[in-house]
């Protein structure tokens, strides 16, 4: 990707960025939307013309990632640029289910998301009270299938197993372990850093760079994140850029 950017080939870069995914099928636009980075989303959509409705392995689009992060501005931006609110994920749910499924008191952006999506979403047959309050009340009445303690335990186990795999130089195995851990917590910068290391060891420079950049979006001044980004650029032989990132470690 870096080489294509240096050569000024925007079309080629757009194709490459759209094709690069992690082990769960998550692409650059999903990550940017989930992190609330409007400049990155603007570049991906307006300059590189990536598919706004591209899905990851569970059938989720960038719009779902934005809703799950509680970022109303990002949701509105994606809607303004044509994001499909009717698209179903692998479980047959639309984005409105995700917007209404959070406790309003716990996440203040959720109601705003429902209000934003409501006018552009077709009626969901199982929701009898088709109002903003009715949708939220329906979603809150559904059983909560998430067990936070179980997820935390699985996350700790994944980190331990990943470290052991790296010690044994089983980098591909470690990569798969960290990918599963990221599915449990997409905001843990250390997981992206560790998976970036695995990609580096496997010679996958572009994937290592994607993870390193995601890590730096969460922890911009973390030396390890800067090192991972510089190492990925070195692997891609973009020497004039990697030195800038490596110098930030000092």
Automatic annotation (TrEMBL):
Signal peptide (from-to): none
Pfam families: Ank_2, TPR_BSK1_C
Keywords attached to this entry: ANK repeat
Record has rRNA-binding as a keyword: no
Domain Serine/threonine-protein kinase BSK1-like TPR repeats per the UniProt entry, residue ranges: 159-229
Per-repeat ranges for ANK: 58-90
Name of the protein this chain belongs to: Serine/threonine-protein kinase BSK1-like TPR repeats domain-containing protein
Organism: Oryza rufipogon
């Amino acid at each position: 990707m870096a080489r294509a950017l240096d050569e000024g080939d925007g079309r080629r870069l757009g194709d490459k960025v759209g094709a690069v995914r992690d082990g769960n099928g998550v692409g650059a636009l999903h990550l940017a939307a989930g992190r609330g980075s409007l400049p990155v989303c603007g570049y991906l959509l307006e300059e590189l013309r990536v598919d706004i409705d591209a899905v990851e392995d569970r059938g989720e689009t960038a719009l779902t990632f934005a809703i799950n992060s509680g970022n109303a501005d990002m949701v509105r931006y994606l809607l303004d640029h044509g994001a499909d609110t009717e698209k179903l994920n692998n479980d047959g749910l639309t984005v409105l289910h995700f917007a209404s499924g959070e406790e309003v008191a716990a996440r203040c952006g959720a109601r705003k998301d429902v209000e934003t999506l409501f006018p552009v979403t077709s009626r969901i047959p199982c929701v009898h009270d088709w109002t903003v309050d009715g949708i939220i009340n329906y979603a809150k009445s559904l059983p909560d299938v998430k067990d936070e303690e179980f997820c935390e335990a699985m996350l700790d186990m994944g980190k331990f197993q990943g470290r052991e795999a790296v010690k044994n130089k089983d980098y591909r195995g470690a990569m798969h372990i960290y990918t599963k851990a990221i599915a449990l917590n997409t905001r843990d910068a250390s997981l992206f850093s560790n998976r970036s290391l695995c990609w580096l060891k496997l010679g996958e420079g572009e994937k290592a760079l994607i993870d390193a950049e995601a890590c730096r979006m969460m922890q911009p001044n973390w030396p390890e994140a800067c090192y991972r980004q510089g190492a990925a650029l070195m692997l891609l032989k973009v020497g004039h850029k990697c030195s800038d990132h490596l110098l930030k470690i000092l």
